[in-house]
Specification:
It is a single chain. The protein has 15 helices and 16 strands. It is of the alpha/beta class. An 8-stranded parallel sheet has the order 5-14-13-12-11-10-7-6. The radius of gyration is 20 Å and the shape is globular. It starts with a strand and ends in a 5-residue tail after the last helix.
Length: about 375
């Protein structure tokens, strides 16, 4: 058992390494509690996980959620959140919070010509007003929010892109990280994670990993993956990158939430994941089960008087049938969307619990193959 000795507010403890896969079971401790890893983080973009109350998130086993810097900066304003006592108090969430830098959202609103060394010029999606997001501003907003983990401002290269573009974005990410470190006002209470970029080019990934981890930070993330590239290519980039990330600090793979990516990421040594997938597909009437995806709004569920998943012990499955949930969805009742979202979040949190148990039992590769075959992925 190895624990990181650090001056930083977030610490990582290694508990066990799976003899079969090399995956790691660990614990991350933040100022608002600790959680076992590998772990999935529900996304609460605007200070709420869509359709879920904090009590419901706790009931399903969530210990850390992600919120979005850009959206909270635009509305209600980070000054309002700060005056309310910080994001934890504002949204009544007592456990850990990670905030992203806002960069991913801003880049989607900006033209390439508006990405400068200074920062990114863009127009708000709310009212069209003009703004500039810089490394310093991203950090200032996150300091206002008071999250336990805050992400450095980075430039995420799209897929596909040229080698030259990916290299320039990766180099700029390193320069912006230096500015983020200097701008950070609360290093004793908020942990700043750097983000590794490099597109889908192995040498750029390695170069970025070396540069970003040269900054003595409490954790590091892998960005710019799961943005449209094939899964096998993403796995290759992880294989290239992770050996250059410190083993004594948490590793975060950004924007990943499908069951196959979660399991394959854990096998490669990733500790933290996040994705909007469970609530997004839930709002469309689609749920995750051990036998694959199920579209509950389909006519086939109209007379299915049994739960979404017989083996599931979530609130939705313990109390309601597919037929009832389909009725709610067809009637456009909000409760139907909430039940689907609740089940999906519970499903991924339970999946990660099972992954952790498989690591502890030294059988994660066997678990992967069994899960993939039943879910319909096939085996790797």
């Amino acid at each position: 058992m190895t624990q990181m000795k650090s001056k930083y507010p977030v610490q990582y403890e290694l508990i066990h390494v799976c003899k079969q896969s090399g995956a790691r079971l660990g614990r991350v401790t933040t100022p608002h509690g600790s959680f076992l890893t590998p772990e999935f983080m529900p996304v609460g973009t605007q200070g709420t996980v869509k359709g879920m109350s904090p009590d419901e998130l706790e009931q399903m086993g969530a210990n850390i959620i992600l919120s979005n810097t850009y959206h909270l900066w635009m509305r209600p304003g980070s000054d309002i959140v700060r005056e309310a006592g910080g994001l934890h108090r504002f949204m009544n969430w007592k456990k850990s919070i990670l905030t992203d830098s806002g960069g991913f959202q801003v880049f989607s609103l900006a033209l390439p010509k508006n990405i400068k060394e200074e920062g990114v010029f863009f127009k708000s999606h709310i009212d069209g007003s003009a703004h500039l997001l810089t490394a310093e501003k991203s950090i200032s907003v996150q300091n206002d929010l008071g999250s336990d983990v805050m992400m450095a401002f980075d430039e995420c290269a799209p897929y596909p892109c040229t080698y030259d573009y990916a290299q320039k974005a990766s180099d700029r990410t390193t320069r912006w990280l230096e500015r983020c470190v200097k701008a950070h006002q609360n290093p004793n209470t908020q942990a700043l994670f750097g983000i590794i970029q490099g597109g889908v080019y192995p040498d750029l990934r390695v170069q970025s990993a070396k540069e970003i981890t040269s900054f003595d930070l409490p954790g590091y993330a892998i960005g710019g993956l799961s943005v449209g590239e094939p899964g096998d290519l993403m796995y290759r980039m992880l294989d290239e990158t992770i050996p250059y990330m410190p083993s004594a600090k948490p590793r975060y793979l950004m924007g990943v939430g499908t069951p196959d990516y979660l399991i394959e990421g854990a096998i490669r040594g990733v500790d933290m994941f996040d994705c909007v997938l469970p609530t997004r597909i839930g709002r469309n009437g689609t749920v995750l089960t051990r036998n694959g995806r199920l579209i509950v709004r389909d006519a086939s569920c109209a007379r299915q008087y049994f739960p979404i998943e017989e083996e599931c012990d979530c609130y939705a499955c313990r109390n309601y049938t597919r037929a009832y949930i389909r009725h709610l969805l067809k009637a456009k009742e909000i409760f139907g969307l909430r039940l689907c979202s609740y089940h999906n979040l519970h499903f991924l949190l339970k999946l990660m619990k099972d992954v952790r148990q498989a690591i502890s039992d030294d059988r994660l590769l066997d678990f992967r193959d069994e899960f993939f075959e039943r879910f319909g992925y096939g085996t790797k």
